[in-house]
Amino acid sequence: MTELILEFGCNHCYLLQFRYPSFCEYCTIELSIRIKDKNNTVKYILEKGQESSYFNKNSNGSFTIKKDFFYRKIVPDVYRYDLKFDNSVTEWKLYEPNTSIIAGDWVTKTSNDGYGHPIQIQEDANNILIILESPHIEEYEYPSFIPLQPANGETGIRFSKYFTGHILPLLEALGLSLCRRETYRICFVNPVPFQTSLHFIHQQDLVVTGANTLRNNVWKKIFPHCEIDFEQRLRSYKPIAILNSCTTSLDKRVKKSIDNIIKTNNKIQTFNTYHPSKWEANPCSKG
Predict the structure, then answer these.
(1) Strand order in the sheet with 63-65
(2) Separation of alpha carbons 270 and 108, rounded Å
(3) How far apart are CA 168 and CA 173, in angstroms?
(4) pTM over 0.85
(5) CB within 10 Å: which end of the chain, N or C, has fewer?
(6) Is the pLDDT confidence value at 203 over 70?
(7) Residue 286: CB atoms within 10 Å
(8) How far apart, in Å, are the Cα atoms of 15 and each of 51, 186, 191, 200?
(9) Helix (H/G/I), strand (E/B), else coil: 72
(10) In a 10 Å sphere around its CB, with 0-12 CB exposed, 13-18 middle and 19+ buried, how is residue 112 labelled?
(11) Which of 4-13, 42-51, 180-189 shows the lowest mean pLDDT across its residues?
């Protein structure tokens, strides 16, 4: 068993930190995780981390992720693409927001790059929300650990490559209703907007044995503290459709939140897809 302690904080500190940037020095909530770790694979990964203002190796063999790892480290939701129908070739295409410029994969390397747009909160925004999971390596600038944008690496590349040609036709076959005269805004949302993989601490990729287990355990521990904020964000974006693309092992918790939104607005179309990092021509399903 490997014990990990997360020094999380109150809503005022973390989940609302962009609106209220002050820091509550004494509000730390210690979230303890006991991870079943038969072969010590998770412990091995955490041992790779260097002690810092973000991380402690405790004398009793446990590990602590300190409050500074979370404070001001939210990766914001973004409005990433316009989805418009091109009558000249009779197909849907992705464009840069509010332009007629065909969009690329839009990978951001530093916080100085132009990227993303805040999600527009208005009735006629035609927002289509892509629900991910939590930011990983590419969603932060290294070594500064400054937040960038969701779907900033392989996830964004595969989304750009496969969405209009493979995924969208499947969604339409499942009942997604789009008007060819309308423009739709593709937006990316993380239910947990913090780096639950802890990659910045241990520098081990998710393919390393134990890394997925660590990420999933951290995500599950933090999500209940983000859940209300997540649902508030979904409601405020007034989506016409939601694609639950969260990692399979975590998507049931996200689905519960989406279902809560649908109870108050049953006009929202919902669908399940694989996480975009796994997209090729993978199937989707109705939400």
Answers:
(1) 29-35, 2-8, 63-65, 55-57
(2) 29
(3) 9
(4) yes
(5) N
(6) yes
(7) 11
(8) 25, 23, 11, 20
(9) coil
(10) exposed
(11) 4-13
